[in-house]
Design a protein that fits this description.
The structure is a single chain. The protein has 3 helices and 6 strands. The chain has a 6-stranded mixed beta barrel. The protein is α/β, with parallel strands linked by helices.
Length: 156
């Protein structure tokens, strides 16, 4: 008997098993896709928290997911006056969290999921229209480790 004929006969004999295995495989792939889609944008448990930050409950209907980065008071990241923000505030001496963004007016209080509240005191390069930059003081390692994340932002 030819090999092709043997293979065809085996397929016919085991057709039900092949269909069931195919369905199980497709269900497994569908479940995996659902898990990946439901996974949050960022694992916020790995974000370092400053002790003075109070993380509040979040209503996702009132916020928007935005790109979040961190910056420092270093000349290579800012201008010749790294401690002075766009509105003239000395952010190196601020006793509250500062952020920079072009998406909200100055002095707007924002809540960023996983980080806490900040007040808009600075601006970013004009190419970043929707991004928020969290001020991390002189802690460059924290800023680098944080990288770029997509987090929920609320305008308080």
């Amino acid at each position: 008997m030819k090999l092709k004929t043997k293979i065809k006969r085996r397929i016919k004999q085991n057709f039900g098993v092949i269909i069931i295995l195919g369905i199980i495989t497709m269900l497994g792939v569908a479940a995996l896709i659902n898990i990946m889609l439901l996974k949050p944008y960022v694992d916020t448990s790995k974000v370092e928290h400053k002790p003075k930050i109070t993380v509040l409950p979040v209503n996702i209907d009132k916020g928007i997911i935005r790109e979040i980065t961190m910056y420092n008071s270093l000349k290579e990241q800012t201008d010749n006056t790294p401690c002075i923000s766009a509105d003239g505030t000395n952010i190196c001496k601020a006793d509250y969290n500062v952020c920079a963004t072009n998406a909200f007016p100055m002095n707007t209080k924002l809540y960023i999921d996983g980080l806490g509240e900040c007040i808009v005191k600075d601006r970013m390069n004009s190419r970043f229209k929707e991004r928020v930059d969290w001020y991390a003081g002189m802690d460059k390692d924290r800023a680098v480790k944080f990288g770029l994340q997509r987090l929920l932002v609320l305008n308080k």
